[in-house]
């Protein structure tokens, strides 16, 4: 199921609640300095006005001259805000920060507090500029991915290489990548070897050396020599296109915290407005020396404080930082909601093959009985050349000296193995059932071998066996240890491989609970049983098509993005680009750091606002304290959120 693609310009931290920040403070294509010119003009005029007021340097600076001066100082920063407030008002959205700031500052002018009116709007405008700069910086990791997208492909057509758009290249065509160029499309390496920088896809800067016929992915950079690649995916289905689509869509999926703050701000702001009206008029009935101007001033302070800037900007900014930090580390979250969900995980269920093991079979042991090992393997390899089984591929990687043997009259015996003729001898290759059905005695030592085993008989005599095993990934053991350290103690392994192998791998990894020989529906049933305990918050890590149902059923589905199937990747909520299980621990740490910073910002914003609201209602706070409670707290919260982009998680 293809997801809707999102234009990067639409990725505002909170498009509904932002009230067109970008429109109010257009950063367009101009320089950063031009953006700050209106604020600089207002600041200079404000300082001159305050200096003249304080030192009484110009006696004529009073009456209409003073009003005009401060009005001119107000216009560069105030007009864009008033304009946005008016636009929102026409659309029926009354309680926006633009409207509130407009009323508060115009009210300050009405009661003669001209310097404070200009200062409040100036600090608000400067705060907006810093907010936009912080948001743009948080988007940097996402925008940087666009630079990774290859612009052209050198495709072999009509006897020569021609440069075309990657979208115009077809599956099966041959492309050439020169040194330093990005691979434009996914494919198979035709050259003998290649050294690639896959940092854009995996977050790992270490060069990746691969051999002929290995898979290569779009977005990787060719480091050493000119290489040729056969295209296996259209550009829209390539790894880099998938990453771009996932990361861009991730910003559109709000977390529950974001959604709560948005709804809360819609209720909270009008309540404060009506309280401000109450602060203005209700004291008339209870205070003997009621002065309308004084109580209106307190109400205006209320309005300035009520602006929810710190909340509606810094919280989405925190999630932007988390998503960007994760993608920088080769971890793709499909939405901010999954950052939140990852923090609650207390149970981890994992597949075996391709998740904690490499998913590549290797010969672990060769035991020839009555035969020279090399000759024994030549007979076996001649037979396995007729098979497409993954185990056959592992056996054929064996390097046997001498000429190759050739098998004839090879037939497959369903569920048992192969039978054929090699060098005039009848050869049987398969499992114990094949040997038993041909009355061939098998040594008892083979019964204690838990790994996959290939038995061989030549001319009705048992000739030996080969043990085939899948290798553990380098970081598999440290992953389990690290999971315990971050508090994930309930770990379970579910595998379709035979139970004896699953139990052995689980024992090596120190996983107490493991089950093998499971069909996809069996895995799903096991997870459903775990879900019956509502305290269990389950993450499942898998990579195959058969893992898709379990990935969908879990609270958080995590797919291995390198080796993983497209179905698993499409179904999952989190994608590990490097196929390293240890990245799951890093994903948990990034999620927890993000949530911690978001809640720090919420507490900071609410705490300071409540204190200054109370002081303002009691006449103990001026407009300057109100500015700090609004713009100052917003900037502090933003600086706190930006910390995510500087953190490292090991």
Automatic annotation (TrEMBL):
MF terms (GO), sorted A to Z: ATP binding; ATP hydrolysis activity; cadmium ion transmembrane transporter activity; metal ion binding; P-type zinc transporter activity
A GO cellular component annotation in the UniProt record: plasma membrane
Q: Where is the P-type ATPase A domain?
A: 149-248
Keywords, A to Z?
ATP-binding, Cell membrane, Hydrolase, Membrane, Metal-binding, Nucleotide-binding, Translocase, Transmembrane, Transmembrane helix
Show the segment(s) annotated as Disordered: 1-27
Compartments reported by the entry = Cell membrane; Membrane
Write down the EC number: 7.2.2.12
Biased-composition ranges, Basic and acidic residues, are 7-27
Residue ranges annotated as transmembrane are: 35-52, 64-82, 94-112, 118-135, 267-287, 299-320, 597-617, 623-642
Checking InterPro entries in the record gives: ATPase_P-typ_cyto_dom_N, ATPase_P-typ_P_site, ATPase_P-typ_TM_dom_sf, ATPase_P-typ_transduc_dom_A_sf, ATPase_P-type_domA, Cation_Transport_ATPase_IB, HAD-like_sf, HAD_sf
Record field: catalytic activity:
Zn(2+)(in) + ATP + H2O = Zn(2+)(out) + ADP + phosphate + H(+)
The answer to keyword Protein transport applying to this record is no
The record's section on Gene3D superfamilies has:
Calcium-transporting ATPase, cytoplasmic domain N, Calcium-transporting ATPase, cytoplasmic transduction domain A, HAD superfamily/HAD-like
Q: State the superkingdom.
A: Bacteria
Regarding protein family, the annotation reads: Belongs to the cation transport ATPase (P-type) (TC 3.A.3) family. Type IB subfamily.
The record's section on PANTHER family has: CADMIUM/ZINC-TRANSPORTING ATPASE HMA2-RELATED (PTHR48085), CADMIUM_ZINC-TRANSPORTING ATPASE HMA4-RELATED (PTHR48085:SF5)
Designated name of the protein:
P-type Zn(2+) transporter
Q: Which organism is it from?
A: Winogradskyella ouciana
């Amino acid at each position: 199921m293809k997801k809707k693609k999102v234009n990067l310009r639409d990725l505002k931290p909170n498009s509904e609640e932002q009230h067109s920040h970008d429109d109010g403070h257009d950063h367009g294509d101009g320089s950063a300095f031009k953006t700050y010119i209106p604020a600089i003009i207002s600041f200079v005029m404000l300082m001159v006005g305050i200096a003249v007021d304080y030192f009484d340097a110009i006696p004529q600076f009073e009456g209409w001259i003073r009003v005009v001066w401060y009005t001119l100082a107000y216009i560069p920063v105030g007009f864009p805000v008033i304009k946005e407030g008016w636009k929102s008002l026409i659309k029926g959205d009354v309680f926006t920060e633009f409207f509130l700031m407009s009323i508060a500052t115009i009210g300050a002018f009405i009661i003669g507090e001209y310097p404070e009116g200009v200062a409040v709007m100036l600090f608000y405008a400067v705060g907006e500029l810093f907010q936009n700069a912080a948001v743009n910086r948080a988007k940097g990791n996402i925008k940087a991915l666009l630079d990774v997208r290859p612009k052209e492909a050198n495709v072999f057509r009509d006897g020569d290489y021609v440069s075309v758009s990657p979208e115009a290249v077809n599956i099966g065509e041959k492309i050439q990548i020169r040194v330093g160029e990005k691979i434009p499309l996914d494919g198979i390496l035709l050259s003998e070897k290649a050294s690639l920088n896959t940092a854009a896809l995996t977050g790992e800067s270490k060069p990746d050396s691969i051999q002929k016929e290995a898979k290569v992915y779009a977005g990787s950079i060719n480091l050493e020599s000119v290489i040729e690649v056969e295209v296996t995916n259209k550009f829209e289905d390539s790894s880099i296109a998938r990453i771009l689509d996932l990361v861009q869509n991730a910003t559109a999926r709000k977390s529950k915290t974001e959604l709560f703050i948005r709804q809360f701000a819609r209720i909270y702001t009008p309540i404060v407005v009506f309280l401000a009206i109450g602060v203005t008029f209700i004291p008339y009935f209870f205070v003997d020396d009621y002065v309308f101007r004084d109580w209106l001033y307190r109400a205006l302070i209320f309005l300035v404080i009520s602006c929810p800037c710190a909340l509606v900007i810094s919280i989405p900014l925190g999630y932007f930082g988390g998503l960007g930090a994760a993608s920088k580390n080769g971890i793709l979250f499909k939405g901010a909601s999954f950052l939140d969900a990852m923090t609650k995980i207390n149970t981890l269920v994992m597949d075996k093959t391709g998740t904690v093991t490499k998913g590549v079979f290797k010969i672990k042991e060769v035991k020839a009985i009555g035969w020279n090992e090399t000759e024994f393997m030549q007979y076996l390899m001649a037979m396995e050349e007729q098979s497409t089984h993954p185990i056959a591929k592992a056996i054929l990687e064996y390097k046997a000296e001498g000429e190759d043997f050739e098998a004839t009259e090879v037939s497959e015996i369903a569920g048992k193995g192969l039978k054929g003729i090699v060098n005039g001898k009848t050869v049987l290759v398969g499992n114990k059932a094949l040997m038993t059905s041909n009355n061939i005695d098998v040594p008892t030592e083979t019964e204690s071998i838990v790994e996959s085993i290939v038995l061989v008989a030549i001319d009705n005599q048992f000739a030996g066996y080969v043990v085939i095993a899948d290798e553990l990934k380098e970081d598999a053991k440290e992953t389990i240890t690290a999971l315990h350290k971050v508090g994930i103690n309930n770990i379970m392994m579910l595998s379709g491989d035979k139970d004896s192998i699953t139990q052995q791998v689980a024992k090596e990894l120190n996983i107490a609970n493991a089950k093998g020989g499971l069909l996809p529906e069996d895995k799903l049933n096991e997870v459903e049983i775990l879900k019956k305990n509502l305290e269990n918050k389950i993450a499942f890590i898998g990579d195959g098509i058969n893992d898709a149902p379990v990935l969908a059923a879990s609270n958080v589905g995590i797919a291995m993005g390198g080796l993983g199937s497209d179905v698993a990747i499409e179904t999952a909520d989190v994608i590990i680009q490097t196929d390293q299980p240890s990245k799951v621990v890093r994903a948990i740490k990034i999620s927890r750091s993000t949530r911690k910073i978001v809640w720090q910002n919420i507490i900071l914003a609410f705490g300071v606002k409540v204190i200054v609201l109370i002081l303002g209602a009691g006449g103990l706070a001026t407009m300057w304290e109100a500015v700090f409670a609004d713009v100052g707290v917003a900037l502090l919260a933003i600086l706190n959120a930006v910390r995510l982009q500087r953190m490292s998680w090991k």
